[in-house]
Structure formats: C-alpha cells, structure tokens
Amino acid sequence: MKEKRSTGKRIVLSIIAIAVIVAIVTISIVAAVMAEEVHEDTHPVQSTETQDENSKAAPDENSEAMPEHGTSGNITENTAASGQQSEADIREQEPTPERTVGSENVNADSTLLHYRQRPGISREYKQLPDLKSKYAVVMDADTNTLIAGKQAGIRMFPASLTKVMTLLTAVDFLPTMDRTFSITLEESDAFYRENASVAGFLPGEPAKASDMLYGLILPSGADCALGLANVTAGNMETFTKLMNLEGAKMGLKDSHFSNTSGLHDENNYTTAYDLAVIFRYALDNELCKKVLGTPSYTTEKTGEHPEGIPLWSHTFSYMTGVDMAGFEVIAGKTGFTTEAGACMVTAAKRDNRTIIVVTGFAPNSRDMCADHIEVYKGIAEGRI
Length: 384
Hints:
By secondary structure, this protein is α+β, with helices and mostly antiparallel strands.
C-alpha cells in the first residue's frame, strides 16, 4: 500500500514538474516575441527601394584625395545613369535652423520662397574631368535638371558667391528699400585690413538698401553685405540665421553660412550643387534677377559722392563679348579667396534655353572663365 502511495506521489510530482517546464518555456516564447515587436517598432525594416539606394557604390570622385577643408556628399555616376536622385547623393550635414531669429525687425515666417522640387539628374549626366576648376555643376534651369558636373556634391568654400544668398535673403526679408546704413571707420578699416572688395561708401555716408543690393553684387562689396545685414535683421548674427533658414527651405543639404560677405570662415561652406539651387531661386525673384543681370549701376547722390558711386559687374566685365556659340550671359557673380580659389556662377541663354553653370576653386580668373566658356560651347555643340 505504501508502495502504491509512493508511486502515485512520484507521478503527481512529475506532472507538476512538466507543468512548470511548459510554463517557463511559454513565458520565454512570449517575452521573445514581445521583444522582437519592440525592436521592429524602434528599428523599422527598410524597404527594398531604400536599401538599394543606401547600398549604391561610391563614385570614383570619392577615391580622389579629399580637399583639406571638405567632406563629401556625392552625386554619383550610378544615380546619374539611372536618372534618379538619392538622398545619399547630397548628405545632410546641418539640422534645420531654428525659426526664431531673435530680432523685432524681421518675421522668420514671412519668407517669399515657394517650395520647389530638388533638381533631378539627367540620364545623360556627363562628368567634366577636364575643367580646370575643382568643383562644377551644370543645370538646365528650365527643367530643373543637372546635366553635368565635377565633384558637384563635395564641400567647397564659396568666397563671394555667398553674396547671392545674402542678396536673396535681404530681398526676401527687407520691409522697405528706403532703409539706410552708414559704415563706421572701424568697420571700414577692418575690410581694408582683410583686403575685402567694397562698393566704396565712406564712413558716415548714408547708403540706401536699394543701392546696397547693387553694391553687394556688381563690385562684390563687403561694406554692402554688412549694411544689408543690419538694415534687414539688426545685426550680422541674426541675418546669417535667416540665410540658413532660407537654405533649409530650399532643401540645401550641405551648406552653412556664417557671414554675409564670403570672407574665409571654416563654417561658411556649400557645394556647387547647392549654389546652383540658390542661383535658380534668385533668378525666380524679379529684383534679384535684375540685380544679378545688371552690367553697371550708379548709386544715388550723397554729400560724400555728389555724382553717386559708379559700379561695374565683375561677371559682365569677364563674359561680355565672349564667343560661347550663341550663349549670352544674362546674370552672374564672381568670387575669390585664397582658400576658395576663383569661383563663378553664371546663367546664360540660347534659343530660349537657360543654363546655370557653377565653378569653384579654379587656379585663376582666366581658367575660371575658360571653364564657363567650354561648358556653354559644349552644350551648344552637343558634347554636353
């Protein structure tokens, strides 16, 4: 009898042990499933399309020695061949700028910029290895399509091409063109020491905003870049926030502006790609297009300049009368610093077709101009 009881007891204990084991296994399985669900929520699986884009091979341009001041965001030969543009092509380096700019003079939400799709890339996108300039991009402005380039997505210093963004920002946010600014002797001396180009307003001379727009672009006046920042936003720091806000609204992926003149600063950088986008926006604005397309201009008369200050465009002095197989320059801006080399952006027209060309880091102004001429001729002759 005792033996039967012992046997029964063992059976009960075995059943209990099995039940415990089953419960433990069940709990483990449930926990694993729940953990996997949490993992999937926090790390969503990429679509095949996204994975394919992210796994594209790096372009040959990346194999070249990188400029000491640069990091890369690339327009690849693969995307050029497919006609599709990947987010990986132009890497985003900067967060969207804050919307509060800290000045009673401006409203950061008042920008006139309208949304535009980022440029597409032609299926016949051409590399331009023979240009003397280190960086370049060619855009069909009518179709918003990139058709050729050279390290178009690699960071570069823009020098005075920065002033195109300064112009666009000032025109966008200035409440009136009648505001005036007078440069101080200290500020004027600082530009002289930095060997910065100026329009020529004297210390204490009242410069109207409308005149400073032309002084900013034609002779590339740093005095006007400073003046426009002050009459628009009250100070340089607030104005550069507006510049970066404009850039964010344009969808720029690798640009940051730390000053209005383009004087060298490690934090003032862009790409040929982004500059083409900026310039196309500027051409969409009638006043910006007029300023960028003016060969010469005379400022209003003042006590210091009874006849006004005559201003001439560097771009048109370089490119007027040049044989470009039927293309004629309609707008442009030049720039130079030791770190940026010779830079230029131009827009030219032929048979109602508008092309934008951006080049950076040419050895000198002669090579810079030759690159633009070669590109326009190449398009006219069907080589580009």
